[in-house]
Amino acid sequence: MSGNSIGRSFVFTSFGESHGPAIGGVVDGCPPGLALAEADLQHDLDRRRPGQSRHTTQRREADAVRILSGVFEGRTTGAPIGLLIENQDQRSKDYSEIAAKFRPGHADYTYAMKYGFRDYRGGGRSSARETAVRVAAGGIAKVCLRALAGVRVRGFLSRLGPIATSAPDAAGFDWAQVDQNPFFCPDASRLPELEDYMDALRKSGDSVGAEVTVIAEGVPPGLGEPVFDRLDADIAHALMGINAVKGVEIGAGFGAVAQKGTEHRDEITPDGFLSNSAGGVLGGISTGQHVVARLALKPTSSIRLPGRTVGLDGAATEVVTKGRHDPCVGIRATPIAEAMLAIVLADHLLRHRGQNTHVTPPLAPIPSGRG
Amino acid sequence: MSGNSIGRSFVFTSFGESHGPAIGGVVDGCPPGLALAEADLQHDLDRRRPGQSRHTTQRREADAVRILSGVFEGRTTGAPIGLLIENQDQRSKDYSEIAAKFRPGHADYTYAMKYGFRDYRGGGRSSARETAVRVAAGGIAKVCLRALAGVRVRGFLSRLGPIATSAPDAAGFDWAQVDQNPFFCPDASRLPELEDYMDALRKSGDSVGAEVTVIAEGVPPGLGEPVFDRLDADIAHALMGINAVKGVEIGAGFGAVAQKGTEHRDEITPDGFLSNSAGGVLGGISTGQHVVARLALKPTSSIRLPGRTVGLDGAATEVVTKGRHDPCVGIRATPIAEAMLAIVLADHLLRHRGQNTHVTPPLAPIPSGRG
Amino acid sequence: MSGNSIGRSFVFTSFGESHGPAIGGVVDGCPPGLALAEADLQHDLDRRRPGQSRHTTQRREADAVRILSGVFEGRTTGAPIGLLIENQDQRSKDYSEIAAKFRPGHADYTYAMKYGFRDYRGGGRSSARETAVRVAAGGIAKVCLRALAGVRVRGFLSRLGPIATSAPDAAGFDWAQVDQNPFFCPDASRLPELEDYMDALRKSGDSVGAEVTVIAEGVPPGLGEPVFDRLDADIAHALMGINAVKGVEIGAGFGAVAQKGTEHRDEITPDGFLSNSAGGVLGGISTGQHVVARLALKPTSSIRLPGRTVGLDGAATEVVTKGRHDPCVGIRATPIAEAMLAIVLADHLLRHRGQNTHVTPPLAPIPSGRG
Amino acid sequence: MSGNSIGRSFVFTSFGESHGPAIGGVVDGCPPGLALAEADLQHDLDRRRPGQSRHTTQRREADAVRILSGVFEGRTTGAPIGLLIENQDQRSKDYSEIAAKFRPGHADYTYAMKYGFRDYRGGGRSSARETAVRVAAGGIAKVCLRALAGVRVRGFLSRLGPIATSAPDAAGFDWAQVDQNPFFCPDASRLPELEDYMDALRKSGDSVGAEVTVIAEGVPPGLGEPVFDRLDADIAHALMGINAVKGVEIGAGFGAVAQKGTEHRDEITPDGFLSNSAGGVLGGISTGQHVVARLALKPTSSIRLPGRTVGLDGAATEVVTKGRHDPCVGIRATPIAEAMLAIVLADHLLRHRGQNTHVTPPLAPIPSGRG
Q1: DSSP B311
Q2: Which residues are involved in binding NADP(+) (chains A, B, C, D) (predicted)?
Q3: Which long-range contacts (CB under 8 A, 24 or more apart) does D164-167 make?
Q4: For chain A, which terminus, N or C, has the lower number of CB atoms within 10 Å?
Q5: Using the beta-carbon criterion (under 8 Å), do D68 and B13 form an inter-chain contact?
Q6: Do the Cβ atoms of C357 and B355 come within 8 Å?
Q7: Which candidate from C11, C78, C84 shows the least CB-CB separation from A1?
Q8: DSSP SS3 for B334
């Protein structure tokens, strides 16, 4: 298995470049008999799709996904599911500048050093466009999780640069709000502040980072394999594998550094866990509480303000990004993070069934208590 | 490959429980012809070994590693390297309490729910004892990295609970100090404060979290495989796979959330990169700069202060930890984190050679500039 | 990695059903910088294509492959290569009979028992149609092998039912003949006999088995990984993974059972090996001699002569195949076998480079001597 | 995963050389709760053990296996199972001749070319000694298969050089006989002929090939993953991965080449399949019939009769094997082949459960009919 596949039992393989004819992928190992149609995947694809507000890039793509195989009479067959999304908006653009220079903060230099040359059109394989197929595959994982275990995966933008939006236990937090604004913000009262911030940022020509929180509810206890493929380790792998991510936390995360043991450990009563510092994972295995992860996204490196760099010839030069770009890539990252979390959970659900189907646990699951 | 193996080309498989006869592992895929002896691995094992100061658990283990295969006349042969560490200090202890209750913050409950029962002696497979073999395998990875690419991997304790120790660009930072105190602290002037803090903590019966920083120098550009097995994603997987870790950052990490693009992007000049917000990885591929990662470790859950929990019978009860435990597991985590980072880098070095041996990059590597 | 992928470093993933919209696949891990165009793959696809003589099924497919990614300006980029072949000849046929009965010798029953139901249109995923994508992926492997190591992979029909066609050391054997007749027969003088046999067979309504021989020339010594992923073990896996294959041999194969050691062992002189009973593999590693493998293909189970079976209701019934079918599936198997052998060799070439790039062997390779 | 591991869900990793301190391995992914003790594995190890009759090598090894982990209070825990067998009979022998020459038919030359040098003591990693650990791991797989699915795996010597011993449907065939003679021959009346043949062979200084048949009874329908990891393809991989194997057949095997479709296809009635040409596998998935495989083993290359070869210096020389060697390696191969078949079946049993646990097949399994 090379680097463009993820998972062991529920395996997703991705292909495609920003400006090639199409992007696509294959989901292998999906259980048979699940109701699945293209429309089930399109909803999340539309949530990720650019050009839906003035706060994201204006590239226009229908992002219509086709299922090419593995579904028969509306149900998965157990055979691999081929996915295809045609690239439509391949503007005939002059790439001579980007071809000759390495944009700071981008993968231009590293691809060139690894492979000797690179497909420079729109970032090629390193473009965020590739994440559209992940969202489609994540949609299949969500169907699988819901049908087999009643798991629900969703997320929201928890920080936009300096602004913390909200948290599940905060007043004003409302899951229903998340899909009703272009920011994936769970608190409608914060929207004016976010819009003002983004308008000023766009005007300045600069970009900013963001933080996304993803939560899985209803995860049964027992998912995750010690000692390397822990559930949290595989979540970290999947989320750090999203473009622009620089950090991943589970539960208390970096906050645990300054915590005392009495504070961090989640005490247990017959009515459930009294807290969830663990983020739903102990010893690499799910506890049955909500699985909670956060990811830090760096500011877009493609900005209108000039930056120093070198060319293919090694000589000093300057680069300025023109054209369509997200001033905050984190804004559209929520559906992508959900997709990656769903893929990891679906994979571990199947892995767990493979090894432990006949196992009788020693007691009924502890109620999840405080998510 | 199941959950107790890590890597694709340089593959490490681990086995063993805290109180079984031995722990051990297998390193497969190591290049042949490298000089290797048990003494090369023992140095890091001794750094990780408990009982070396009053600040860590008093369990006494020689942790002497034996190489059982894969080395002939002092050189690796290309065959798998079998590693074995006998468990010596298996105190005949009364485990009846731990057998009947789920310790909060521990893997007791999750192992029981996953597997139906568990080896409760000293935490069994979930014990930090298992990490000794990782350190041995990491020692082989370090030998491999040094011989094939001149890479050096090292780390230090960057935070102990509320106390930030030092950072590579801080006054007083000294790599040579790290191995001369029980805290892996790089600044000797901070030791009194750390000792006072730990003495008070131990007296209180509580525990605390910590943060470790690991750095790899000399990493050639080009390591890492887009899009899922990015170098940073695999580092996140490996570090989050260490017991008690709740968060992982690369480069600017969570600090990138509040950064502007002009601030974060690492500009390039013919003399090198002007900064290293990227932490040595762009688009999932190494840049040639220092690879910099940080990990957050939660406070030990085994503390002397009583905590609420339930028993195997589901009834409410209380648990108090007696005996030998680290009040801050993060203190001994530095060699473990180095080992995991080294394993990931060795794996990607071999993966890169496999695909890209004949490739000629378009220019000489950019100097690494600011680490 | 689930069952629809093959390889570790050069990884091919396949998807698609006989009567879905398309079949396709992804080749991941291909080295960058190789000249590659769709035409390079089309040649072998045309060799495998049905309907080119009266001796194979009359289903008509253009089998035109599209490369969707991983190639830029005529060269591979190192990114995954997406492949797509549209299904054209999806006759609107009445599948009610095949839907309700299990055809003997087919995968109908086993798919139904494994997955609970099946895509019964034309065999669905178990159709030989899927092998078209393998041939395309094998074409990429051939390009890779030729460019990186000068390896050439080719094959021929060595037996058609009771008729042995020819062997590389036989009088009349001519590689150039293989592609000039519909049987992949290397000896033109045997064609009348083959045609007569097939005409009589077709008339009888029955089918027959076949044997194909594949040979790789120029394989460098050193490919293959002891002890499980031996080169010959991976070849056996790949060839036994072709539809209808029931046996695989390397070198002397089953003939070795009755051989003496003095007869079998390939003695060595400074001018090369004196024989090739080993089929180019010793201890699981290539010797530098020709790699020689043979595969046994069973007779097509879809025949016009009625056979007993049961229906979905478990009741006894009878099945008769109407319509288009190959009376000898082995006839078109040569390009498929070449493709699978090429995929295994390309994978092991990259795996070997990954582990052993810097190795200096103790002597210059022994000449390959007698292939 | 590198070449010394096999399986995806039930994963076995092997290490060790013929004359190192120990050989061993790790079984990962074994379901928890299975009764397992060292004695369960020792039986097959004793069957494989050399030196038990005059017809096999006189090397004396106790081959006592130790379970180092993964078992607690007599049951598997779900954690990896570490296995260790000390090497005892490491005669201090003069290896200077074997160190300087490449023995024909051995892996000496290929290891040297792959890795640059080799552990020449007794064949090092390529020695059949390594298969002892496979037999131990296969013993765990047998326990798993029996407990979870009632599967039984056993085998016998079906050919010794020119002598066909017996077949399951032959008069005189008796499973109970197999373990009561040194040949694994199922027909006691054939023993004098076998003994005479072997005595003459040993006297001549030459060696001979053999064929082993392995059969799994009670395999549930549904195991195996199309299209590459078919059950038969994975069996071929596992059996071809045994030292000295040159061919593998399933069911009718190479006999299928000359069969007609009417003859080969296994017709089905409500009382079961009417034959088993398929060898229990259709479309890569088990049918519920007996899984039947045969493997061809080449004659031992280590013989007392001199053979031509070259030395490390490339110059012509001669080699004569002195000392302890099996004149027919196939004789002791039966337990090894059983182990490899059991490992593949256990792996596919777990893989199948992972993907298809909730699936309801359309009808009750067809009786297996004629094995």
Answers
A1: B
A2: 48, 54
A3: D165/D190, D165/D194, D166/D190, D167/D213
A4: C
A5: no
A6: no
A7: C11
A8: helix
In tens, the pLDDT along B60-105 reads: 778 899 999 999 999 999 999 999 999 986 665 778 888 999 999 9
What ipTM was reported for this prediction?
Answer: 0.97
The C-alpha of D236 sits at a distance from chain B's nearest C-alpha, in angstroms, of 19
Which helix (H) or strand (E) covers residue D335, if one does?
Answer: helix D333-356
Residue B243 known to bind ligand: yes
Residues of chain C with pLDDT under 70: 1, 58-59, 89-92, 324, 369-371
Q: Identify whether the C-beta of residue C50 lies closer than 8 Å to the C-beta of residue C78.
A: no
Radius of gyration (Cα) for chain C, nearest Å?
21
CA distance C36 to C39: 8
pLDDT in tens, A213-224: 999 999 999 999
Quick one: pLDDT at residue C3? 92
CA distance linking residue C229 with residue C233, whole number of Å: 6
CA distances from C50 to B211, C196, D151 (A): 64, 20, 41
> Angle between the B333-356 and B231-240 helix axes, to the nearest 10 degrees?
150
Measured between CA atoms, the residue of chain B closest to residue D79 is B125
Would the CB atoms of C13 and A22 count as touching at under 8 Å?
no
Could you tell me the two tokens for A354?
């493979």
Contacts of D353 in chain A (CB under 8 A): 353-354, 357
In which element (H, E) is residue D351 found?
Answer: helix D333-356
Nearest to D259 by CA among C303, C332, C256, C324: C303
Q: How many CA atoms lie within 13 A of C69 on its CB side?
A: 30
Q: Amino acid identity, residue A187?
A: D
Cβ atoms within 10 Å of A180's Cβ, excluding its own: 13
Q: Quick one: DSSP state of residue A98?
A: H
SS3 B13: strand
Q: Which amino acid is at B280?
A: G
d(CA A270, CA A253): 26
In terms of CA atoms, which chain B residue is nearest residue D21? B68
- Tokens describing residue C31: 């080295």
- Residues C114-155 have pLDDT tens digits of 999 999 988 899 999 999 999 999 999 999 999 999 999 999
Give the burial class of C147: count Cβ atoms within 10 A of its Cβ; 0-12 exposed, 13-18 middle, 19 or more buried.
middle
Contacts of C9 in chain B (CB under 8 A): 9, 351, 354-355
Work out the number of other CB atoms within 10 angstroms of the CB of residue B115. 25
Instruction: Return the residue matching tokens 């530098």.
Output: C288
In whole angstroms, give the CA distance from residue C330 to residue C239. 13
Helix axes C333-356, C38-48, angle to 10 degrees: 140
Nearest CA in chain C to B354: C354
Output the DSSP codes for A264-295: HS--EETTEES--TTTTEETTEE-SS-EEEEE
Nearest CA in chain B to D71: B119
Give the span between the Cα atoms of C83 and C10, in whole angstroms.
15
Q: Answer whether C253 sits within 8 Å of D247, measured CB to CB.
A: yes
Task: Nearest by CB to A250, from B114, B246, B268: name it.
Answer: B246
Chains in contact with chain A (at least 3 beta-carbon pairs closer than 8 A): B, C, D
**Pairing mode, if any, of strands A75-76 and A11-16?**
unpaired
Beta carbons of C114 and A8 less than 8 Å apart: no
- C200: helix, coil or strand? helix
State the Cα–Cα distance between residues C48 and C66, nearest whole angstrom. Answer: 17
Q: How distant is the Cα of A8 from the closest Cα of chain D, in angstroms?
A: 8
Q: Which residues of A272-291 are buried (b: 16+ CB within 10 A; e: fewer)?
A: bbebbbbbbbbbbbbbbbbb
Size of interface B-C (CB pairs under 8 A): 57
